[in-house]
Amino acid sequence: MGILGIEILEEIERLDPSVRSALIKVLKKIDNYLEKTVKSEDFQRLTSIVSALAEEVKIIAEQQRKTEETLNALAEEVRALAEEVKKLAEEQRKLAERQTKTEETVKALAEEVKKLAEEVKELAERQTKTEETVKALTEEVKKLAEEQRKLAERQTKIEETVRALAEEVKKLAERQTKIEETVRALAEEVKKLAERQTKTEEELRKLIKEHEKTRKDLGGLTQSFGYFLENESYKHLPSLLERDYHLQITEPLDRKFIRYPHNRYDEVNIYGKGKIDGKELIILGEVKSQLSKRHVDEFLKKVSRIKKFYNWETFLVLVTHMAVNPQVEDYVKDLGIALYKSSQFR
């Protein structure tokens, strides 16, 4: 490749093997063609063009080297470029074939030298277009390098984002671990609490049983005391009523069920008959260990039910064991009901 020179060959050697091979073939054909067709007076201009082309090829080779180091993804673009070079080689081959035919025509038709010169001029124009194409290709490579730089920047940002995300995931995992530990500790506390609750429930069941037993025992004692207080009333009330109200007992005092229609009834603690100044009276009374206003009202309701069915003249009496609230005592007196305390049973 005498015309193209050693410098461009050195730069071509730095290119990718597939690109280098195709480009060498093209340049060889161009070199052969130029050796046969270029006039001596054009050699200097062509040499200048070739030098410029060599410089461009040098720049392209440097950019190619940097591109290969930073982005393997450009391999596809380089292969596409190789394909374009192959196409260019094919076009050059076709051009060489046409040139061969032209040379044969020149040999056969020496008189058409002017036409050959015109064709050389056209070739020079095509060479100019080729230079423009190489320049455009150089510009595209620059753009490609810029895109690669931007891609590298985006890749760096992505890597930083991924690292930050990994750090957040790590922190989240640590928090999750702490939460799991807290949940396990809480579960253990809940388990202990459940065990204590079970024990508490067991103790509560025992207490309930004991309470029920106590209530039964207390109920039995209360009932026994109530019967005792009623019996004491039957013994001591006759003398007290005669002393305080001139009421003479004509039928002994006792507890009694007062019957109503439809098998209904009321129980009264004190029932008996007596006279005041010859007037017949039915004695109705209630015995409570600790008398309250509620007890008084319930007794009055019971008396009211009895009088709906029995047209009796009644004498009402209440007996209590413990001290009576002064307000309750006044309430009983205002109603005209006789009131006695067990302490009066002497």
UniProtKB/TrEMBL annotation:
Source domain of life: Bacteria
Keyword flag Phosphoprotein: no
Coiled-coil segments: 64-217
Annotated keywords: Coiled coil, Transducer
GO BP terms in the entry: signal transduction
GO (cellular component) term, any one: membrane
Ranges where the Methyl-accepting transducer domain occurs: 39-191
UniProt protein name: Methyl-accepting transducer domain-containing protein
